[in-house]
Amino acid sequence: MNSWEGGQCAEMAMVCLTDFEKYAKEHLSKDTWDYYSTGADECYTRDDNLLAYKRIRLRPRVLQDVSESDTRTTVQGTEISFPIGISPTACHGMAWHEGETATARAAEALNTCYITSTYSNCSVEEIVAAAPDGFRWFQMHIFHSRDLSEKFVQRVEALGYKALVLTVDMPYFGKRRDSLLKQSTLPPHLSLKNFDGMLPEHETSVPGKQVTPSRAIDPSITWKDVHWLQSITSLPIIIKGILTKEDAELAVEHGVQGIIVSNHGGRQLDGTLATIDALSEIVGAVKKRIEVYLDGGIRTGSDVLKALALGAKCVFIGRPVVWGLAYKGEEGVREVLQILKDEFRLAMTFSGCRNVAEINRNLIQFSKL
Fold this sequence. Notes:
This protein is of the alpha/beta class. The chain has one domain: Aldolase class I (TIM Barrel, Alpha-Beta Barrel), CATH 3.20.20. The chain has helices at 17-27, 30-37, 44-54, 100-110, 124-130, 146-159, 177-182, 223-231, 245-253, 275-286, 301-309, 319-350; strands at residues 56-58, 73-75, 78-80, 84-86, 113-116, 135-140, 164-167, 237-242, 258-261, 291-295, 314-317, 364-366. An 8-stranded parallel sheet has the order 4-11-10-9-8-7-6-5. Residues 3-8 and 204-209 have low confidence and may be disordered.
């Protein structure tokens, strides 16, 4: 049973993101919950994304006059109200009947960045129509058909998307055991609308059969394909899925505008570094030449503070957004974002920081836990 079935969901006191997680687990169908929550293989990396934050301690400063605080920051030159955006996650329609249009409205209301997934149940046109003043980036792949990729670029440029987020850690799909057992099926009433009329029948998602058109993704791409992408667009290109300083240095050399430190929520290669553990070496390699962001494991405002102290410009959340949708659609996502914003403001001021610019590496100490 989905959370919107049978009338409006019961009112609950949602205090933290864990409350939304519990609600989603109880109210989503088991297949849907497993699809969102599963990681690759033994789920070690998925779980370590969260545990890694507990190995980091904060060193707060006191008597700093934090009577006023400011959570605003910028990403790629655009101001957002707090350094927490929405990661590209597929198939929001499985959690809430309005799908990504609800997510887009929530991001617009909170004035933050929403990275729209290629694999949305709503089309990019529907998403823009639902939140015309929203700040959006578009997550994409380079497909076997370069023409298909180019058509996506042209569509989102025309719609006012502000950057392209190229996912580079998914030449193939990770071995997600729960999804394999269930064939990653979409409910019959849903489809991947961005692909409507764009793929041959044998490559496209078939409702009830396959969540993503996996055959379309080209596993042979290299840095030369990043140059190709740069040649067909004037939008900033953000590379999502980098975990090493070697690849971070190559990203700078190849002229991209940003990196999202990401292990795909632990859904691709199990046993990789937690993203917060990979962050420092990437920030060190980049040397402030391009912006560095992070996703994976963010569950509290203190987690956000730790990531910024280690050099992230902004963090992005994925699964918690789906939990918010499952709870109450747009309103649920707003609540998730607002709770994180409020927790971040508290963590920032308790640490003696009046604004985001004052957050620095001196706030951090690694524990042996």
